[in-house]
Amino acid sequence: DAGVIQSPRHEVTEMGQEVTLRCKPISGHDYLFWYRQTMMRGLELLIYFNNNVPIDDSGMPEDRFSAKMPNASFSTLKIQPSEPRDSAVYFCASSSTDTSQYFGPGTRLTVL
Amino acid sequence: AQTVTQSQPEMSVQEAETVTLSCTYDTSESNYYLFWYKQPPSRQMILVIRQEAYKQQNATENRFSVNFQKAAKSFSLKISDSQLGDTAMYFCAFMSPPQTSGSRLTFGEGTQLTVNP
To answer: Do A105 and B42 touch (CB under 8 A)?
Structure first.
């Protein structure tokens, strides 16, 4: 299996622009997670899906953030408008019912 | 809410030696899962090992093993025959069973391990 795939690997944008991060989970996994990693706050869960349905979005920082999972093999995390404080590494992870989460390589986002 | 504490921000070890990373957690639950993840400079989060709380036997994966002390709420990672490629940030993580709180992972602050030649 190719593992969890994320794109882009790096994103540099200017404040106010829309940013879309993409994730393809491991085939057969029915849970998908979006995390954010910063030096100040460490690893934070933003939102997770089960069978394409958002289950817990309490970690989404504010309305500028939104996530979708239109099908079992694709999810997006969108930030609109982006702000410098959104600069972080964003990880997507997936798991099956055995609970072990497997992470993608991450997207390093820089908002200028 | 569950908390995970890694009290060693940095550690170093000589190549081929053994090192133990500490982790404690706080929970009122009796059934849960514990994990160690490794994050090398490439920043990829790699699952190293997992332990189910209901299993008394400590998990092992090649050179990696854990010492799970449920009563003490302690979950340490032992790396034997350390290799240069083991240099990474190591995160301890806790998860309640999915049916009780979803599949949320709670991470510790991390321990930066450096393996010296």
So the answer is: yes
